[in-house]
Amino acid sequence: MNALRSPFLSGSVQPSKLILTPTTIMLKPTAKTTRTSKPPFPNSSPLVPVLNVRAVRIEEKPKTSTRREPTTTTTTLPRSANPPSPSNNIPSPPPSRNKSTATRRVPSPPQRRPVVPTLPTLILNAVDDVINNFIDPPSKAYVDPRHVLRDNYAPVLDELPPTECEVIEGSLPACLDGAYIRNGPNPQFLPRGPYHLFDGDGMLHSIKISKGKATLCSRYVKTYKYTKEQEVGGPLVPNVFSFNSLTSSATRGALSFARMLASQFNLANGFGLANTSLAFFADRLYALGESDMPYSVRVTPNGDIETLGRQDFDGKLMISMTAHPKVDLDTGEAFAFRYGPVPPFLTYFRFDPTGNKQPDVPIFSLMTPSMLHDFAISKKYAIFAEMQLGMSPFEMIFSGGSPVGTDPGKVPRIGVLPRYAKDETEMKWFNVPGFNPMHLTNAWDEEDAIVLVAPNVLCIEHALENLDLVHSMLEKVRIDLKTGTVRRTPISARNLDFAVINPAYTGKKNKYVYAAVGDPMPSISGVVKLDVSKADQRQDCTVACRMYGRRCYGGEPFFVAREPDNPEAEEDDGYVVSYVHDEVAGESKFLVMDAKSPELDIVAAVKLPRRVPYGFHGLFVRESDLSKLM
Ligand SMILES: [Fe+2]
């Protein structure tokens, strides 16, 4: 289903019908613009007048809101919770027109029941409407939901219980025994005001594979924010990346304060979206977003996804944690950090193999609040990249604008800290002008040096507001710890990011990188395999490539080793997997590609029973690890 042809986003792009009810305005798709016969909102009021319109204001679910039956708790870690059974749901016709899949049925979304708003909720929602319509409408494209949520960036309307998939090409390799799970934004309520791509509630899309068969499940991470907003039937927490003026910041801040006074939510319980990535360490699986603490999740034997709760690691983890912890599979340790707007602006920490969080290492030598989305580890060091992206909360409060912005006056630096440091006394910083990597792919130690591989964002000023102009060039960076010299070598001139490696090589010298091709940005039109050892010969390192085809776009690739327990296995002996969406057919697939073949041959393609929106990061968890989550 095409996003702007989806039931709630259409307006000037597709001829649509406007539905008017006493409380809301929303779009009803024409038969031509949807692939399912189900109404967009099962409980919506019957059609009143039908008008043809060319432009509309995006609205969302009716104010007489509905909510879904909660399936999990976010405050405890129940081990015996009974997963919802897909057999309890009434099957509905599949979205596909393909006759060969007519017997595969997509379960209906769970039953909803109306939420009766309280008087304070009605008043505060009315204030919110005034702000969205008159004070802070989505005036810029990068926060205009009609632009941001176009095509397959549009959210799916509800969760998908475990649903059998059809293998339509090749066969799933035996080593793919487990689940590939990918995180991404999927706003629970369609935005009435400004909305940035990073602002959506986290939804996990898991394809569980066993004995050559696949089951897809899509579930929200049941964060505190998600749960409280579900209770009241509407948004409570403002979109952090969408502030665009002093007035909007002031009014939205005042509204949030009023909502807290009305006990609608409590910031102490976190406001994170858990929409960015996943990590598995110490026999736990986490959904992550860097503005909050991790949420523990699990995949049940039938392929369902459950949120177990917000994890503070026995009270040792404060406030938040990066969405990109690094796991050393040799030692079982996990390494992480958090950053923030008040000193210390950066704090490093690690978890031992049993998941015990070790004491914080505050980094006061980071002198200004900076956005650090990712970092790297080697066997000896933790490596941080201070970019020209600063955090300016006070500027947001007093001048308006986003809390994160570029700082062209800052010289980017790489910080190197011994990975078992107890304080920052041995930390060294190296100036690296022009080096602004949002992600760090891998690092390893060489004699008196550290080698880092990372996609460098060449136009960092576009990183948040003009994603279509971003170009990231993969670089190999050698940091000489003795002389302080930093040597940078391009690996490819192509626009590459979301670069991954064989996870067993995290922190160790590796040869192969698998990266997503951003073209046209921010869409991902293919995947390349690079041999980074060729960079020293000053040549393009691409050794394999697969483009997905016309208007077919994928996501971050992930490498799954064919023999993960074989220490003699070659680094690239395995498969590259990713979700890929065909915007013409409106269908999504799960692709399995042979990592050793020069064209990344497709060894299996799985037709998904429902669209999987574009998202961020994912990982494959083996069945032997999934079983530890039970
Ligand atoms: Fe990321």
UniProtKB/TrEMBL annotation:
InterPro entries: Carotenoid_Oase. Signal peptide: none annotated. Residues 71-80, 97-106 have a biased composition (Low complexity). The keyword Metal-binding applies. GO terms for biological process: carotene catabolic process. The keyword Metal-binding applies. Keywords: Dioxygenase, Iron, Metal-binding, Oxidoreductase. Its cofactor is Fe(2+). Residues 56-70 have a biased composition (Basic and acidic residues). It comes from the Eukaryota. GO terms for molecular function: carotenoid dioxygenase activity; metal ion binding. This is Carotenoid cleavage dioxygenase 4, chloroplastic.
